[in-house]
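#structure-requests
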Amino acid sequence: MSLSVGDTLPDITVKTPGLDGPEDIRTGELFAGKRVVLFAVPGAFTPGCSNTHMPGFVVNADKILAKGADVLACLSVNDAFVMGAWQKDQNAEHILMLADGNADFTRAIDMDRDASAGGMGVRSYRYALIANDGVVEYLGVDTQRGVVEDSSADAILAHL
């Protein structure tokens, strides 16, 4: 499935950091009946993600939620422990962290890329989307390394 505006997002189990360890969350349940802003990063704690991409959403979380998003979520092909630690490191308590450790969701929407040459295995492209009841309304993908434009918080705010 190559993701496009108008597509319905798949129902896949991912993990989220919980008080007692990783918890399952179904994307079908997450998106059902809600307007969700989801942004995905190639990797937690990586320079572009930690210095540019995530901070834009942390600073603008209140604005994004005030403009009609019910949920603001970040997805990465990392485990839930890493996502929880990154959430704390980035002061991202208003952002739902989603760990797609096996890249199941990422592959299902054709946003996976091979980063094994850099020792990182399968990773996600950098993207952001707005979904209403699981249907994609906006999709911004940045394919150039280190570029955060179409997937930025500013791009999301412009489309809400």
